[in-house]
Write a structure and sequence with these properties.
By secondary structure, the protein is α/β, with parallel strands linked by helices. It has a single domain, classed as TIM Barrel. It is built from 10 helices and 8 strands. An 8-stranded parallel barrel has the order 1-2-3-4-5-6-7-8, surrounded by 6 helices. Helix 8 links the parallel strand 6 and strand 7. The C terminus is likely disordered.
Amino acid sequence: MTDSEILQRIDHTLLKMTASWDEIKTLCDEAVKFKTASVCVPPSYVKPIHEEFKNLNICTVIGFPLGYSITAAKVLEAERAILSGANEIDMVINAGDIKNGNFDFVLEEIKLIKKTCGEKILKVIIETCYLTEDEKIRLCKIVTEAGADFIKTSTGFGTAGATLADVQLFKKHIGAGVKIKAAGGVKTREDLEMFINAGAQRIGTSSAVKLLSGSAAMGY
């Protein structure tokens, strides 16, 4: 797989709380130059990006990073993000609901947010580092039933990020219409290839452009 092919699967990400507009613009310039799948940015930057970078695919996050905001707040966040120009929404589930066995509530929340997104892409972050294997499997089924487009490993703000074992587990248990996004701790070209080869159609990382931009610019 060429570097350019890898970059086409990257959600070029900057979600740190201190991200400045200059840093966000640099992220967007890089995404345009190296043709990444999207930029993944805080909701507050969606509208200014949409106004300045007309053809850039914008992904943003809701209920981020802890997931325990109320459903109505998540729905409103998604609605406003889409109105501001986002094409992709990465939502965080409430892990507390999973620990309490409230699986039906999680299912209905995802359904509501997918209804809000309509034809826009919805990715569901389940934060695997806090879950048992049985909970991950149950969430694969919930994400599938809810009609989401992707299941995503991590926020990057938890105690651990994406693992090969989790991507392999997802691939085994998600429905045919659901794709996989690996995120958190993806730092090397070997990581990128490993997750893609395991079945991840998207990778969320801030590192890929820096790792691959030189050779990608030369067509490798």
